[in-house]
Amino acid sequence: MAGLTTAWELSSGDCREQLDSITVYQRGWRLGGKGASSRGPHGRVEEHGLHVLLGCYDATFRVLREVYAELDRAVTDPACPLPGWRDAFVPAGAVGLADRHDGAWSHFVTQFSSNDALPGEPGAEDRRLTPVDVASRTVGLLMDFHRAVSAPGPPAEVYLSASPTPRPARSDLGALLRGTGLTGFAVALQGLTRAEQLASGAGPDEEVTRRLAALLGAWRDGIRGVVLADPALRRTWQLVDLVVTSLQGMVVDGLLTANSYDAIDHLDYGEWLARHGAAPETLDSPIVRGMHDLTFAYAGADRTRPGFSAGLGLHLAGRMLFDFKGSIFWRMQVGMGEAVFAPLYEALVRRGVDFRFFRRLDHLGLAPGGSLGTVELTRQADLAAGRARYDPLVRLDDLPCWPHRPLVEQLADDPGDQLESHWWPGAGTGRETLVAGEDFDVAVLAVSVGMVPHVASELVRASPRWRRMVERVGTVATQSAQLWLDASESDLGWSGPPTVTLTGFGDTFETWAAMSHLLPRESWPTSGGPRSIAYLCGAMPDVDPGSADEVVRHRLTRFLETEVGSLWPKANGRNGFRWNLLWDDEGRCGPDRLAAQYLRANVDPSDRYVQSLPGTGRFRLAPGDTGFDNLVVAGDWTACGFDAGCLEAATRSGVLAARAVMAAGAGARPEEQSA
């Protein structure tokens, strides 16, 4: 996404008029990197993993809205079932968390309210959400909570469980807060004073912040014992404790004074909460675990070594909770390849951007003086005689899609379907060397950070900053599974909303998304086809690449046999998991039915998830600050202001990369190297 965003920005408006040409070089036959998807048997969507767009992804939605508007499919492609961006992305407010207490799992779903805003409005991506903003809105959240539970009338009811046999958590929270010696009203009053001061733009007053921190801590500690005596209040307490501790920590650590998160970047989010007195049960709460699970934030995929930058955690939590537009989540109605990368490709081609598929990047070579001198590529396949270019898309029910292997009828020979692998065994059909000043003036390296040591070893040796970056910016392998089931979610025993995304569950596949809304977009038999789709994903320990697929199959088998029953209680029979629930048109038995599902081990250097481990943010390179004057970098591993492994980070990085190209080239011919 980062490289394509760079091309989009460079081909827009005044930028395009100043450039001679823009060329994208792509390994294999698909665009999208970790977001690439294609269509397999029965037209099923096959993804790298689970992708959900947050409502705070303003840069991403801005680009996508521009793309769909420019394509104007309602006029130019009226048969296409996704004419506009609102057809491809719909609000999804159901967020689930899994909780393990006294050895038993339960699940609860929060339905976030929507608003009338739309993500991607002009200028929205440039507006900052500072620690002061987050603190002010957090105080408002506490005040809203206090009003809700302290209002006169019948006891407050808080429904927190969507487990198979939910028990409403019903307690008189108002009486509880009033009876703890330090009233919630005092906190709300002090918070209101503080919020008004922050909103007015006045600088934080040390005495006010000190008193607020003491007050918050005393109130939290005062109610802890009473709350924990009532099991029905445990989850409510964890949320209150998390919010209060975060606000107290921001005050004590001077984040409001500095209006920056840098002071706590070196700490893990959970470690930072513990320093400021968060209860042990809060540190092991589904909210904290869910944050780590959604971002695969475990060093080496070791769940005993959680690692997510505290500063970034606060920043992203603030963005997600207080800055979403429309809905906290937006769900794609097709695969990511069709919702994002096919439209982007089509729009870029219309703009005159040149795409050269089947080009594997091998090596970046330095010129005398320290600039980039050469870009060496392997040509993986040649076009068939008479063809001027490769057309990568196919149409499935009038929707432009990416096929699951190259379209060999357009090629001189069949190169196979392993072209996207770092360990591709082919020799290729030739080599190409791009020379600075002849073939390009500015290059954009838009590979994943895991590929940098392999393709830019000369730069890593020459630059201590590049060396520190590849050593310190962590990545982790991930695993994913897409299951097509012969039962609906309710038939499996799930009693929550049918479009939920749930995280914090289990130790192998921590996140589950119910994706049955994709069934009508796939091409299953009119009768007897699958009735639901489940996407599962999680972090994966490093294994030998040759055995990685079998490792995922083994881990999924164990998950289904030993863990999934807590999530789908009706999926188990007398002898464990009912394997016949997995849809298989070949009628295989037992775990062999996994052959009809789609499993992935994302162990390729290009596929590994980019982590945000504590203390590593300062080692990221900014797109325009590479130390080589004709080289720009783009990717979710760069310093872009949203330094997490996500689509928004890649998009923001691409925007910055385009600005850097214009600053460096001033009308030159940038070549974008994308893999």
Please summarize what this structure is.
With 675 residues, the chain is of the alpha+beta class. 33% of the residues lie in helices and 18% in strands.
Tags for this entry?
675 residues, alpha+beta, FAD/NAD(P)-binding domain, 3 domains, eight-stranded mixed beta sheet, five-stranded parallel beta sheet, 21 helices
Note down, in words, how this protein is organized:
- The protein contains 21 helices and 27 strands.
- It has 675 residues and is α+β, with helices and mostly antiparallel strands.
- The radius of gyration is 26 Å and the shape is globular.
SS strand fraction: 15-25%
Helix content: 25-40%
The CATH class name of the largest domain reads: Alpha Beta
Q: Flag low-confidence runs.
A: 153-186, 667-675
Largest sheet: 8 strands, mixed
> How many whole angstroms does the radius of gyration measure?
26 Å
CATH second-level architecture of the largest domain: 3-Layer(bba) Sandwich
CATH-defined topology of the largest domain: FAD/NAD(P)-binding domain
CATH homologous superfamily (4th level) name of the largest domain:
FAD/NAD(P)-binding domain
Task: Please render the helix and strand layout as text.
Elements: H1 2-10, H2 13-18, E1 23-25, E2 37-39, E3 45-47, E4 53-54, H3 58-71, H4 73-76, H5 85-88, E5 89-92, E6 94-101, E7 104-111, H6 131-150, E8 157-158, E9 169-170, H7 173-178, H8 184-199, H9 206-228, H10 234-252, H11 255-258, H12 269-275, H13 280-283, H14 286-294, H15 310-322, E10 329-332, H16 336-350, E11 354-356, E12 359-366, E13 372-379, E14 394-396, E15 399-401, E16 430-435, E17 442-446, H17 452-455, H18 457-462, H19 464-472, E18 475-485, E19 501-503, E20 511-514, E21 532-540, H20 548-562, E22 572-573, E23 576-577, E24 598-602, E25 609-610, E26 631-633, H21 647-665, E27 670-674
Parallel strand pairs: 1-11, 1-27, 6-19, 17-26, 17-27
Antiparallel strand pairs: 2-3, 4-10, 5-10, 6-7, 8-9, 12-13, 13-16, 14-15, 18-21, 18-24, 18-25, 19-20, 20-21, 22-23
Helix pairs in contact: 1-21, 3-16, 3-21, 6-8, 6-10, 8-9, 9-10, 12-15
